[in-house]
Amino acid sequence: MTSQRGESAVAATGGRRGLDKSHYLYIAVILAVVLGAVVGLLFPEVGKSLKPLGDGFIKLIKMMIAPVIFCTIVLGIGSIAKAATVGKVGGLALGYFVAMSTFALAIGLVVGNLIHPGEGLKLTPYDPNKKAATDSTVDFLMGIIPSDIPVLPTLLAAILVGFALQKMGKQGTPILTAIGHGQRLVFRILIMIMWLAPVGAFGAIAAVVGATGAQAILSMFTLMLAFYITCAVFIVVILGSLLRAVAGVNIFKLMKYLAREYLLIFSTSSSEAALPRLIAKMEHLGVSKPVVGVTVPTGYSFNLDGTAIYLTMASLFVANAMGTPLDLGAQISLLVFMIIASKGAAGVTGAGLATLAAGLQAHKPELLGGVGMIVGIDRFMSEARALTNFTGNAVATVLIGTWVKEIDNDQVERVLSGSEPFDETTMIAHGAEAEVAPEPETRHKAAI
User: Fold this and answer.
1) Could you tell me which PANTHER family the record lists for this protein (predicted)?
2) Residue partners of 328: CB distance under 8 A and separation at least 6
3) 445, 391, 443, 401: which is closest to 294 by C-alpha?
4) How many whole angstroms separate alpha carbon 344 and alpha carbon 333?
5) Best exposed site among 52, 83, 186, 285 by fewest CB in 10 Å?
């Protein structure tokens, strides 16, 4: 488990050690998408024959859905109970985070219904019982991957186990610890699977472009553009208006103050990399240490605005691409599911993709065949998700500090005006404090 001090060191040194691996994967996915599109356009039949590569990767992701959802929901319920015990700040933070995540999910549904991403592609529905026309070697390899476990029963079991462990009190602590270790194992496996993302993306994109031509490329570009615009509007209009109305702070001044953190997040596709810096900067801004200490770590687990927008827009994209658009009832039930399951997206690379697959599998399993397209463009949208999540947590800290009257407004004015700049040397002391402090419930959130 990476300590906050370790992350501080990465941040202080430009994150070089952590950047190399993530950038290799990022570059590999980009190259795979481009190569897959070229193969699909120039050699359509060859592209279609590469579909098992994408299907195999999707099946590996499906294999991890149940353990990811179970471990994270059980631990998440424990985290909610733990955060609520800290009193007014914890309860207020949780209420705000749930409300904003739900609102972000709803925005994703609204935008998705307005632009109808993926419409007209008419991809082949996924049928787990149908054998593809492949040779025996492919059938053998696909058969090695375990079948998926039903999502909704897993979710119900996780919720029941989580509340049961709450009732057990101290007796349940060893079990929660064991589940925490199990979650780390699950996430480690998921990391290993995500290194196959370039292969899966290449096969999926080549097959889709081979079957539909340039329309697939246009549809994916439309989804990415709409997602980036939606995230920008959410930050500037929704969060900006709320910040101005409650705290009297300009969102653009706050973003300028956090400019270095934005660069770090953009280079790593992870808001987790900037966690220690956000804590230090919010304290320097004038928010009291107790408020920052509760709000920021809790927000990293429960305030996933960008991920929420991504989940709903991507779900509608896949449904439209498969030629089976979701009706209003299905969209509402999907929204409710994502409100709960999106807490499982606060994990390593691929947890958001697993959560997306879980939502689709729970509502319409035949839609899983379209997840392959999302694999190809998921990395392109990860920066917007991370930046939106990070901004939402920074805004939440200021808002909650204002609501509980634990913020120095004069200090805020001096800092944002530039008259009292942040001292980078304080990060060294802050990192030392983080080493001895109990680690918050922000486990393994690299590139959500």
Assistant:
1) AEROBIC C4-DICARBOXYLATE TRANSPORT PROTEIN, PROTON/GLUTAMATE-ASPARTATE SYMPORTER
2) none
3) 401
4) 17
5) 52
Nearest of 130, 25, 21, 61 to residue 374 by alpha carbon: 61
CA separation for the pair 311, 61 (Å, rounded): 16
Is 371 within 8 Å of 208 (Cβ atoms)? Answer: no
Measured CA angle at 190 (ends 320, 164), to 5 deg: 90
Provide the token pair at 29. 């996915």
Q: What does the block give as tokens for 191?
A: 């990391």
How far apart, in whole angstroms, are the C-alpha atoms of residue 227 and residue 309? 8
7 and 296 in contact (C-beta within 8 Å)? no
| Cα–Cα distance for residue pair 59/69, rounded to 1 Å | 16
Chain CA centroid to CA 306, Å: 7
Residue 152 structure tokens: 């909704």
Structure tokens at 321: 């691409």
How far apart are the C-alpha atoms of 289 and 336, rounded to whole Å? 34
Contact 89, 194 (CB under 8 A): no
CA distance 304 to 310: 10
Helix pair angle (351-363, 371-403), 10° resolution: 110
Task: Please list the rounded mean pLDDT of every run of 10 residues in the chain (448 residues).
Answer: 37 43 73 87 85 80 78 72 63 84 86 78 54 59 71 78 83 87 84 82 81 77 89 94 94 92 73 78 89 81 81 84 78 76 54 73 72 72 85 93 91 90 62 42 39
- Give the predicted TM-score (pTM) of the model: 0.69
| 3-state secondary structure (DSSP) of residue 134 | coil
Calpha distance 264→262 (Å, rounded): 5
- Identify any residues that bridge with 287 across adjacent strands, giving them in sequence order: 407
Tokens linked to 341? 């399951």
Q: What is the chain's Cα-based Rg? A: 22
Distance of alpha carbon 260 from the chain centroid: 21
